[in-house]
From TrEMBL:
This is Transposase, IS30 family. Pfam families: HTH_38, rve. Residues 165-329 form the Integrase catalytic domain. GO terms for biological process: DNA integration; DNA recombination; transposition. Keywords: DNA recombination. InterPro entries: Integrase_cat-core, IS30-like_HTH, RNaseH-like_sf, RNaseH_sf, Transposase-Integrase, Transposase_IS30-like. It comes from the Bacteria. One of its GO terms (molecular function) is transposase activity. GO terms for cellular component: cytosol. NCBIfam families: transpos_IS30 (NF033563). Gene3D superfamilies: Ribonuclease H-like superfamily/Ribonuclease H.
Amino acid sequence: MARSFVQLSMDERRVIARMYEKKISQAEIARALHRDRSTICRELRRNFWHDREVPIAQGYWHVTAQQMADDRRRRYRKLLRDPQLCAAVIDRLKDGWSPEQISGRLRLVSGSSAKLSHETIYQYVYSPEGRDQQLARHLPERRRKRRPRYARKPRSLVFPIECAIRNRPDVINSRSEFGHWEADLMIFRKEHGAANIATVVERKSRYTVLFRNNDRRSKPIMSQLIRQLAPLPAQARQSLTFDRGLEFVSWRELEIGMGTTAWFCDPQAPWQKGTVENTNKRVRRYLPPETVVLDVSNQEIRSLCNRLNDTPRKCLGFQTPKEIFSRHLLAMERQSM
């Protein structure tokens, strides 16, 4: 039978602090304490003191670590100490209530002496006891494990401010210049896999390119995008506008691969790339969310592209996207001669 886990003591935390300060590896600390390496790694991650105002005070301090661990256990044990309260919380979770709703309702009910923060409920849900009861599946947003807030990477580092759509030139915004595109992914039912359809639309002509991806990883998507647009003249692929989805974090591949500039919508503002959003609605008539994308052949996708590009548009004076697109390409060829 496996030995049950024993919480780290103050003495053990003192040893960890001393060895960590001497820059001794986590593996050596674990061997010195006869602990698993993951225990040391988890301890340093959870009880490391972060102080943004006084960076010099940041570090692993054994007294502070003990206090943080005790506070965490005290909050976590509140539901275990009160079986009746725990049962009530679980019932509300199964009824579809969020932890915040449960906490707020407990505070609102008159005469209720049970006060519980939503953070405590989340901690219980993702605790070993909560996982045994599969409580996470009752949450509005289901995750296999909880992600700490401080570990989330700020999107501003991935999508810099200089590439924000508010800095996009007026010549692109007005659609007066050819060669500026918008791109998006069309997602389908999860049970049918991660395959998706990429939609790429030229803003002035509304010319559409569709292609299938077998997953949502950014680099393969960007590689496919480069393969689709690279054969065009440089003036016909000057820029691409995306939303801030994680599937577009490798956008720099476009600049390296074909010298195309990338622009990004503001957070939660997909309407700022309205051309591709409108095109997605048209495509959904033929590829609804329940479509099994892997069953759709490349020939069918090309046929759908032709259908969209050969359909007259009111915004184009009832010309087709293909006619406008071909006219601009022909003009570029003449200029290069």
